[in-house]
Amino acid sequence: MKPRPYLLVLIFLMLACSNRNTPRAVSEDFIYNYYQHADQAASLQLSHGLAAEKLEDEIARVREVRGPGEQIEEMPKIEYELIGTEEEPTHVLFNYRLTIEIRGATTHTRNIVINTEQIDGQWKVVNFDEY
């Protein structure tokens, strides 16, 4: 039986419209934008409070060397793994381990903490840090 095009379109729409307004989805979207693609502006859209302040400061600092919307040409390969969570009703803290591979040779590991909070019905990253 040949798949019908409208059925495939429906499946793709369902996947595209999945709920990204969850603490984990927001934290992983933040990792994707900030760490994997060095896109502070996209990360800022997911942020509030101290996290937004940090990103605004960073955007101002890199503005001199990188134009608006300009991406870094050669990004390191970055993989992440969730290693722990702490949950409260209105905020969730995530601990991730990042593995950063530069040019296929050098590998670094960092841990990051992302604190999410529900603000006006939307989950936002309110702070992030590395250690």
Overall 3D shape: globular
Strand order within the widest sheet? 1-2-3-4
Q: What's the CATH C level?
A: Alpha Beta
Number of domains: 1
Oligomer: single chain
Q: With helices defined by DSSP (H or I, 4 residues minimum), what is the helix count?
A: 4
Please give the largest β-sheet: 4 strands, antiparallel
Tell me what you see in this structure.
It is a single chain. This protein has helices at 5-16, 23-36, 40-44, 49-62; strands at 77-87, 91-102, 106-119, 122-130. The protein is of the alpha+beta class and 131 residues long. The protein has one domain (19-130): Nuclear Transport Factor 2, Chain: A, CATH 3.10.450. The chain has a four-stranded antiparallel β-sheet.
Helices and strands in order:
Layout: H1 5-16, H2 23-36, H3 40-44, H4 49-62, E1 77-87, E2 91-102, E3 106-119, E4 122-130
Antiparallel strand pairs: 1-2, 2-3, 3-4
